[in-house]
Amino acid sequence: MPGPVLLGCNGTKYLAKFDFCTVQLNKTHSVIIGGRDSHTHDSTADVIVYDWTKGEWTLGPPLQTPRDSH
Question: How far apart are CA 46 and CA 70, in angstroms?
Answer without folding.
Answer: 13
